Q: What sequence folds into this?
């Protein structure tokens, strides 16, 4: 299980990323694009994720992933249970979501300095 502080530590060190509080929910953005967000009770994390791949991911790991609310189905978004994630997996998911929001040059430089 990962904590909010662990997610924060990963998200805020990503280039161009910053944290905001919107309607009692912690979110991380690049510009105005949200790449990660916590549920109000901080048990679920929503992440940028390719729409085409999310149904298969949810079906493969229903104990970890779930579909976003109906209002968010049109977005590249998936939800994950915080209790089912370890630190390494959370880091990978947050970084992948962030990479969907920044130019390729930014994330390639980041990965060169911070290999997985």
A:
């Amino acid at each position: 299980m990962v904590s909010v502080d662990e997610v924060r530590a990963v998200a805020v060190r990503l280039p161009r990323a910053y944290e905001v509080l919107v309607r009692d929910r912690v979110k991380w953005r690049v510009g105005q694009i949200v790449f990660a967000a916590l549920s109000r009770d901080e048990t679920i994390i929503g992440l940028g994720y390719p729409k085409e791949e999310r149904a298969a991911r949810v079906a493969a790991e229903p104990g970890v992933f779930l579909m976003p609310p109906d209002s968010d189905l049109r977005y590249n978004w998936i939800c994950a249970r915080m209790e089912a994630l370890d630190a390494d997996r959370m880091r990978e998911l947050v970084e992948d979501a962030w990479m969907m929001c920044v130019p390729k040059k930014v994330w390639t430089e980041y990965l060169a300095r911070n290999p997985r």
Q: What stands out?
A: The first helix runs from residue 4 to 12. The CA atoms of residues 4 and 42 lie 7 Å apart.
